[in-house]
Amino acid sequence: MLPGMKLGLDRTTGLKRILKSWKSKDDPGTGNCWYMLNTNVSSPELFLYKDKGNVKWWRSGHWNGFGWSGIPTLSGPNSLYNFSPVNNQTETTISYVLLPEGSIFQRFVVNESGSIESIMADLRRWTPLGSAPLDQCDNYGKCGAYGKCVNVTEFECTCHKANGLREMRQIDSNMSLKECQQRCLENCNCTAYGGVDVKEEAGCMRWYGDLMDTRVLKEGQNLYVRVDAVELVTKECNKCALMLAQLGPKLKQTTGWIEETPIEL
């Protein structure tokens, strides 16, 4: 994929642009790893799949107004890339240019091993600029349902302080964070919410299914998790889970909010 090219869906023609790996370094046939833009949600994000689109392997996180929530290093002031998402009735696509434009010759490739690489032309060879996944926390769903991945000094899975977090998202682009909280409170099935924009000035995301693939990031966004009041004073997740198992529905009589920050949504 070269600068200026698009990934995603042309809604007028039905054309869907996907980046696919070779079968091997020596065989240019269609491989098992596919890199594509998920266009079936109101906040599209990039996914890397294995097994020809059947197994989620890595994702970028949603677009937060400045960049991908799961790749904060690509959206800073010193970033080499300028991404341009488009999501309307005509198309749902993503493209990019380099900064400064035309400064180097670069491309993205998907390897048969299950990684995305950014490489640039350096004299007579291609030199790697970066790749994804980077670590164990980058692998989709590494910590399973209700788990969050932490990779500061070493890889670790910890639990959210709530039972029944949700992955299916509903997004309202024009809603404030306060309105988002209120809307979530009005629905007993809503167990987490967060802002779409990284500054939390506009946009609302709400979750309604098993929450998968969350991780702690230094430059991540806040995730507001709906919990039972008893859990607000419980520090250890294992005790929290045991308490929920023992008391069940009785804990749902009172609720509160905890803030998990920073985290990839």
UniProtKB/TrEMBL annotation:
One Pfam family in the UniProt entry: S_locus_glycop
Which one GO biological process term can you cite for this protein?
recognition of pollen
Work out whether the entry's keyword set contains Disulfide bond: yes
Signal in keyword set: yes
Classify the source by domain of life: Eukaryota
Q: Which UniProt keywords apply?
A: Disulfide bond, Signal
Residue ranges of every copy of the Apple domain listed in the record: 157-237
Q: What is this protein called?
A: Apple domain-containing protein
Organism, by scientific name, is Fagus sylvatica (Beechnut)
